[in-house]
Amino acid sequence: MSQLPDPESLRLLVLVGDVGSLGGAAARLGLTQPSASKRLSMLERRLGLVLVDRTRRGSQLTDAGRAVAGWAQRVLQEMEGLLTGTEALRTKRDAELRVAASMTVAECLVPGWIGELRRTRPELYVGLQVTNSEQVPDLLRSGAVDLGFVESPRAPAGLSARQVARDRLLVVVAPGHPWTRRRRPLGVAELVAAPLVLRERGSGTRETLDQALRKAGVGEPLPLLELGSATAVRNAVIAGTGPAVISELAVAADLADGRLVSVEVEGIDLRRDLRAVWTSGRVPVGPAAELLAVTRRRGKKA
């Protein structure tokens, strides 16, 4: 496997596309133009593509360069989320804001929310506990955290809640699976009869699926494999283990890039609300209130 591109080279490529100038992009990153040119040439050799058209009038991305820059932008955003999330995990003991989040929300949304909050409050330490939706209320009631995020179909009893995002579960398979050749939607009875890669019991994803199947008048899903995170489920499906029911948030990039295929199912409603939760009778204040405000702003942009 060839060596992966370094983040600074990807940042440089994205900036060349934004400003239309290698010199301008180099200046923004604190590089000399020869150094930036050498870095881009190394990236082109590593990928085996011509990414930048260099002329006297400036530097423009080629068609291949624009495609790679779009992918690079997503990679850089994911890396920022990774760094923000891992920092929150490291600092949870001495955090000024203690947050608990269910797996899917923690993987897909919380790093972006915390990152935006930290841009206005760089001194703020945020501690994050990642668990399933069933455990978040217990952490709130015990005083271990100030704010929680869950993906269960109902708001937990005894807690105040606010919807912060909408999501839906999708049935996904690897390319080449027989379900990708269907001309009609999958029936809910066919879904429940098929061995599936599932989230564990106690997760909001599993609770949402179980409740939707009960409303549809069919039995429980047949587990082929039960896993503790959306990422693990996604990886199992990509590897060809079998079909899965998973959050759209967790597989949006995989669907766009063709690593996974969504299969339409009729006779079942898999939409759900994602909620912030906190102790009843207490109005969130300080950093908790600021984080809630970030989720509202992000929700309006979605």
From TrEMBL:
Every HTH lysR-type domain range: 5-62
InterPro entries with a match to the protein in the record: LysR_HTH_N, LysR_subst-bd, WH-like_DNA-bd_sf, WH_DNA-bd_sf
Domain of life according to the entry: Bacteria
Gene3D superfamilies from the UniProt entry: Periplasmic binding protein-like II, Winged helix-like DNA-binding domain superfamily/Winged helix DNA-binding domain
Keywords: DNA-binding, Transcription, Transcription regulation
GO molecular function, one term: transcription cis-regulatory region binding
PANTHER family: HTH-TYPE TRANSCRIPTIONAL REGULATOR (PTHR30126), HTH-TYPE TRANSCRIPTIONAL REGULATOR CYSL (PTHR30126:SF39)
Family indicated by similarity: Belongs to the LysR transcriptional regulatory family.
Name of the protein this chain belongs to: LysR family transcriptional regulator
Organism: Streptomyces antimycoticus
Lineage of the species this protein comes from: Bacteria, Bacillati, Actinomycetota, Actinomycetes, Kitasatosporales
